Amino acid sequence: MATELGFMIVIPLLAGTLLGIYLDQRLGTKPIFILVGVAVGIAVSVVSIVRIMGSLIDS
């Protein structure tokens, strides 16, 4: 369970950051897409964790 939660935090954050870096390099818009990618990664992580915790509380 702890490993699953760790991946739920790291993977979306890493994916959002890497996508943001790629888009900023391609479009020359540093640091806009990096910040957006990090924000989206954090949001996805929080939503995933809330869903998992909600299902654990219900059971």
Automatic annotation (TrEMBL):
The chain crosses the membrane at residues 6-23, 32-53. The lineage of its organism: Bacteria, Candidatus Gottesmaniibacteriota. This is AtpZ/AtpI family protein. Keywords: Membrane, Transmembrane, Transmembrane helix. Pfam families: ATPase_gene1. InterPro entries: ATPase_put. It comes from the Bacteria.
